[in-house]
Each structure stands twice: as C-alpha cells, then as structure tokens.
Amino acid sequence: MKTRVADLDFELSITYSVIERRVQEIATEINVQYAGKTPLLVGILNGSFIFMADLVKELTIACETAFVKLASYHGGTTSTRTVRTDLDLKSDVRGRHVILVEDIIDTGHTMRYLVNKLKDNSPASIAICTLLLKPDALEANIPEIKYTGFEIPNEFVVGYGLDYQELGRNLKGIFKRVD
Ligand code: 5GP
Ligand code: MG
After folding, report:
1. Cα–Cα dist 142/129, whole Å
2. Which atom of ligand 1 is found nearest the CA of 71?
3. Is residue 145 a part of any domain in this protein?
4. How far away, in angstroms, is 3 Cα from ligand 1 center?
5. 99: domain CATH number?
6. Model confidence over 132-170: pLDDT tens digits?
C-alpha cells in the first residue's frame, strides 16, 4: 500500500496487526519482569503516544504513566543530533523503576541524553522500550535498551505516531520512504 505525506512517497512496511502482536509480546515480558515493582512508564512525546497507549493497555501489572517532550529531528528527515527539551518530567523518579517508551531510536543521542539526565535523579532502574531501532544508525552506546519491537534498515519511516512535518502520525502501520 502506497501513501503520500506532504511532498514524500511512502509504502507500507509493518502492518498494524504485526505491530499489535509484537506489542503484546513486549507487554508480556514487562508483566513478568516488573511484577510487584509498579514501574513508571515515561513516553517520549510526540512520537510515542500511540505505542504507549497500545502498550499500557496490554499491561496487567500495576504501573504509572508520564510523558516528556523531546525533539531532535526538527521537521526534516535526518537527526540534528541536538536535543531540545520542550516538556520536562514532573514525576519523582527517585527509587522508581523507570521504563522509557520511545517510538524509534536512530542515532541514539536523544535516549543517551534522557538516560543521563534521569540518572541524576536516582531511579531504582532505567530500561528503554522502543518500537523501532535502526542499528546501522546508532552512534551512542545505550545498554539500557531492553525491549525492541522491530529492527529496521536506515530509512525514514512514518505512521503509528511517527511524523513527517507533523503529518502521517495517524497512519495505521509503519510506512517507509520510497523514491
Ligand atoms: P535519535 O536521537 O535517536 O537520532 O533520534 C530519535 C528521534 O528522531 C526519534 O524519537 C524520532 O522522533 C526521530 N526519528 C528518528 N528516525 C526517524 C524516522 O525514521 N522517522 C521519523 N518520523 N522520526 C524519526
Ligand atoms: Mg521520538
């Protein structure tokens, strides 16, 4: 299936039903590994809002949710490697088991920055749960990545919360750029 977002063409790469199944698998792992720990799930806005919603619906353990807003793409299709904080975390993370929920890890600079910042506030543990990971684009060392939905090649994707110029977040599935 093909679609156009602003001035770029995309084709379906990961269907919604495949995503749904993978989200259930990840939730099952979290249900087991965080039983009795009441984790604080922190979604990174804007991109993670759909993934976060689908994930928490599959969690059966006690958990809390919060959001932070970070940006590193600033409207283009490549990472700028500078991270801007638009909305800071208000929850107290001291002694908490924090799970950062991200849409996609590309260069990894956004997550490296956020993890380092969180560590200053003494959480009990930090894990990262990302729907997508581009292993070939990773420039930072991020041992905190514990849950990955899908590893994808180094190509630009939209849909399921991810945007191009703020468009395409509503697409049901992950779409990759085509020429
Ligand atoms: P990083 O700091 O890892 O390079 O960038 C992470 C952020 O860049 C992600 O949270 C996401 O907002 C954005 N990003 C990275 N790759 C893509 C992509 O292929 N498509 C979209 N729409 N955003 C991306
Ligand atoms: Mg993001």
Report:
1. 12
2. 12
3. yes
4. 20
5. 3.40.50.2020
6. 999 999 999 999 999 999 999 999 999 999 999 999 999
78-100 per-position pLDDT tens digit = 666 677 776 677 778 999 999 99
CB count within 10 Å of CB 77 equals 13
Atom of ligand 1 nearest to the CA of 105: 3
| Active centre residues (catalytic) | 106
The answer to whether residue 8 sits within a structural domain is: no
Token reading at 121: 């506030």
72 found inside a domain: yes
How far apart are the C-alpha atoms of 46 and 171, rounded to whole Å? 14
Q: Give the total residue count for the chain.
A: 179
Ligand 1 residue neighbourhood (C-beta within 6 Å): 44, 47, 72-73, 79, 102-110, 156-158, 162-164
